[in-house]
Amino acid sequence: MGQGLWRVVRNQQLQQQYSEQCFLQRDRERGRRAGPPLAEPLQQRRTPQCQVSGTDISHLLRVRKGKEEQGFIDLEMLPPELSITILSYLDATDLCLASCVWQDLGNDEYLWQGLCKSTWGHCSIYNRRLPSGFSYRKLYMELDEGSLTFNANPQEGVSYFMSRGILVDHPKEIAKFIFYTRMLNWKMLRIYLDERRDVLDELVTLHNFSNQFLPNALRDFFRHIHAPEERGEYLETLITKFSHRFCACNPTLVQEVGLSPDAVYVLCYSLILLSIDLTSPHVKNKMSKREFIRNTRRAAQNISEDFVGHLYDNIYLIGHVAA
């Protein structure tokens, strides 16, 4: 529960320092105008004008000192908007712990809805009319359970989501769920996509490679759909689908540079091989830029030498396309 509550305590310290500075500045100004200040009872001093209007948060922060000097303040004493903002910095585990202290705040549906949608960006249930008594906290637990099930057995995980009404049995809905989720194990995801090519097709169409340089687009593609460790039919399928999607997103570049799906296919393999050559510690004699240009233009003769040279520079400076 660290970050959010720490910020509140830090806010108390800053406001106290700010108030002390205002007192000192006011006293110095009075001293310059009227000479040595007369003795003034402490209780007659007025509150400086620098205090924040509205709820006196500094006062609320000091109330708890009489009871528990070392503890945090009671969030229920703060305005609800401020309490919710503080708790929004917590993850699910810490929010469950917070609900043991502040039951109403910790079980707030707004907080659990934010956790669900920030972790699983798309679910079919988000777009349906929710029944009365629906709980986003319960939904979070089901999404977490389904993700763990998927990471053990992809087919059972997807079946779990469908049985709970979280996902609709449609390739596009499953592809969106995968695209906007980072909780799924990439090895299990690769197995699932290898078996469900219809979902893979929909997943590829979700990528937008417009105005992206080819190596950067390939990195973005492999960030969502991890490349297999060995060359095979699945890797060829991925590169083929990527090549067609890249050309569809960049029609102007296709005309200016002379790219085609076949040419992009060749360039992708060249980039993968170059990435291995430049980044592997086992390769002692690294491929030079001139060698890369010569070898690549043998397979893709319509591509200009400058364009191929820029491809080499990108891999040399940024690194592997499938890391």
Explain the layout of strands and helices.
Blueprint (H helix, E strand, L loop, with lengths): L1 H33 L22 H7 L16 H8 L4 H10 L1 H4 L2 H11 L16 H17 L1 H10 L7 H9 L6 H10 L1 H9 L8 H11 L8 H17 L1 H7 L3 H19 L9 H11 L5 H14 L5
Pfam family, one: Sec7
InterPro entries: F-box-like_dom_sf, F-box_dom, FBXO8_F-box, Sec7_C_sf, Sec7_dom, Sec7_dom_sf
GO biological process, one term: regulation of ARF protein signal transduction
Percent of residues in β-strands: under 5%
Assign a percent range to the helix content.
55-70%
Unreliable segments of 5+ consecutive residues = 37-54
**Overall geometric form:** elongated
Q: Main β-sheet: number of strands, strand sense, barrel status?
A: none
Coarse structural class: mainly alpha
Evaluate the radius of gyration: 30 Å
**What is the number of helices?**
17
**What string, H for helix and E for strand, traces the elements in order?**
HHHHHHHHHHHHHHHHH
Which keywords apply here?
323 residues, single chain, mainly alpha, 64% helix
Could you characterize the architecture of this molecule?
InterPro entries: F-box-like_dom_sf (IPR036047), F-box_dom (IPR001810), FBXO8_F-box (IPR048003), Sec7_C_sf (IPR023394), Sec7_dom (IPR000904), Sec7_dom_sf (IPR035999). Residues 72-115 form the F-box domain. This is F-box protein 8. Helices cover 64% and strands 0% of the residues. It is mainly α. Helix 1 (2-34) packs across helix 2 (57-63), helix 9 (171-179) packs across helix 11 and helix 13 (233-249) crosses helix 15 (261-279). 23% of the residues are buried.
